[in-house]
Write a structure and sequence with these properties.
The complex is a heterodimer. Chain A has helices spanning 2-18, 24-49, 54-64, 67-83, 87-92, 97-126, 136-160, 167-181, 193-200, 205-215, 222-251. By secondary structure, chain A is mainly α. In chain A, helix 1 crosses helix 4 and helix 7 runs antiparallel to helix 10. The chains are: A mainly alpha, B mainly alpha. The interface between A and B is medium-sized, with 31 and 32 residues.
């Protein structure tokens, strides 16, 4: 029961406290204006280059929007403990580490889902993209899975934040890489093999493909399972990294060193 | 005054250049956008189209740097504890602020180097400039014009609590309406008059026409004219801000 409380309430509290973007003065510009205009930018670029239809870009960029809270939010909510000087207290507590850190992914997933769903809805309305009502629950499920896999990569970034000073910039670099290799904007068959391979190992790639299939009338295929596996692998890696870096920080007495 | 502007520009440019985070983000993001554009346009496209995409990504990076930094330029001085000293100095506050926003624009020079080199090495894009002298003139004129647009952002977003982030949210809207990568012809008709008021439109036009051919002089003249207009608007806004801040004694408050 204690672990469950640490997971749920601890996660929400720390996310709210450490991710400064949840302030509406910041949340509206970063989670409403920016992703929506990003979607429009690439949809119009798609029209100019004749790459694909508006639907393609609405789906791709709406899912891509989940990467921001997932990567930057998660990265900040773990490395922020050190900046707030609460890391030593946190790590000296007897709380279950898995519950402690996984709890932080839950608000990031929720945040990613809301941002992504908002983008999907407004993008579809503005660009007059029709999505069958029957596809919406499946798209919602894919958004959840994508938000999870992004938060899982964010967990790894947060772990790295225990050893690296400026992890937020690293998270932003991943956002940039996802823009190119996730298939949100550039069709994967146009990318060289090595970029496709990198993309396949990162979040969103399979989820975006799955969502496009569903919007076009297909069923939930294996792609969404691949996306889930990517998320699970990054979650495992993130927890291992947290464990290793916690141990290393204790060994070298560098827990609070910025 | 000129010495103040030049030394301010030098100091802030060097300060930004020594920040690894600034230099990495100003070089990586345009490379990513240029690469996205290369693959969307098709790597086998007309070399001029790919070169224009590189230049478009560069101007995007310049605006991005300005939008991120200019919105919070005053806030940063406030955090550093230098705002009162700067406002109290016997020079117009705008003359202190302008070098900051122009410097954030000028570090776009790294973006230019990175995207052109990336395009050349990975995509074999030929770096042929139709009017090299005009290109050399277009770049600084565009940088100053975009920096002056940043000065307007800095002076008008003063009372917004998270100006840094609001400024950042102008990134994509301005990229979109100024035709840096997306031709204005595919956008709704009402966008074109809006784009005429924004310096990146003319800066990009000047850089593009001096590179692939055309007459960049009219675009250059527009950049100069807009820079002067922006300076006047920013000066009026800053004077009003300074008066209000003194009246309410809120200069140092966040």
């Amino acid at each position: 029961m204690t672990s469950l409380r640490v997971f749920l309430r601890g996660g929400v509290t720390s996310y709210r406290a450490l991710f400064g973007w949840l302030n509406p003065w910041i949340a509206v510009p970063m989670f409403v204006i920016a992703p929506l205009f990003q979607l429009l930018f690439f949809a119009y670029l798609g029209r100019a280059t004749d790459v694909a239809s508006d639907t393609y870009f609405v789906v791709g960029n709406a899912l891509l929007a989940a990467s921001l809270p997932g990567l930057v939010g998660m990265g900040g909510s773990i490395s922020g403990e050190r900046a707030a000087k609460t890391l030593s207290m946190l790590l000296s507590s007897p709380a279950n580490r898995v519950a402690l850190f996984l709890g932080r992914t839950l608000p990031a997933i929720t945040n990613g889902f809301v941002v992504s769903a908002f983008c999907f809805l407004t993008g579809a309305l503005v660009l007059r993209v029709h999505v069958a009502a029957s596809a919406i629950p499946r798209v919602a499920l894919i958004i959840v899975v994508c938000a999870f896999s992004c938060a899982a990569l964010g967990l790894c970034m947060g772990a790295v934040g225990l050893r690296v000073r400026n992890v937020i910039s690293g998270s932003w670099l991943f956002v940039a890489v996802l823009l190119l290799v996730s298939g949100a904007n550039v069709p994967l068959d146009r990318l060289p093999d090595w970029l496709q391979t990198i993309g396949a190992g990162l979040p969103l790639n399979h989820g975006i493909a799955a969502a496009r299939d569903v919007v076009e009338g297909g069923t939930l295929g294996r792609a969404v399972l691949f996306e889930l596996v990517v998320g699970i692998v990054y979650t495992g890696a993130g927890l291992l990294l947290l464990r290793a870096f916690e141990f290393e920080s204790r060994r070298t007495a560098s827990l609070e060193v910025m | 005054m000129i010495r103040l502007l030049l030394s301010g520009l030098r100091v802030h440019f060097l300060q930004l250049s020594r920040s690894a985070v600034e230099v990495v983000s100003i070089t990586v993001w345009p490379i990513i956008y240029a690469t996205v554009a290369y693959y969307m346009f098709g790597a086998e496209s007309d070399p001029d189209v790919l070169l224009t995409a590189s230049l478009g990504a560069t101007v995007m990076a310049i605006w991005s740097s300005v939008a991120f930094s200019a919105g919070g330029a005053i806030e940063i001085q406030r955090r550093l504890g230098t705002l009162e000293l700067l406002v109290a100095a016997p020079i117009p506050f705008g003359a202190v602020l302008a070098p900051i926003t122009i410097a954030t624009s000028a570090i776009g020079i790294y973006a230019l180097g990175a995207t052109l080199l990336w395009g050349r090495l990975l995509f074999g894009i030929s770096l042929h400039f139709e009017h090299p002298v005009l290109f050399a003139l277009s770049l600084p004129v565009a940088i100053v014009a975009i920096g002056m647009l940043g000065l307007i952002l800095a002076s008008t977003l003063i009372f917004y609590r998270a100006a840094l982030f609001l400024g950042a949210s102008f990134e994509y809207p301005v990229w979109l309406v100024t035709g840096l990568l997306v031709p204005l012809s595919v956008l709704p008709g009402w966008v074109a008059p809006l784009s005429w008021l924004l310096a990146p439109t003319w800066g990009m036009r000047a850089i593009r026409e001096s590179t692939v051919g055309g007459s960049p002089l009219s675009a250059l003249a527009m950049c100069v004219g807009l820079s002067a207009c922006y300076a006047v608007i920013a000066a009026v806004c800053l004077r009003a801000f300074e008066r209000l801040a003194r009246e309410r004694a809120t200069l140092a408050l966040t």
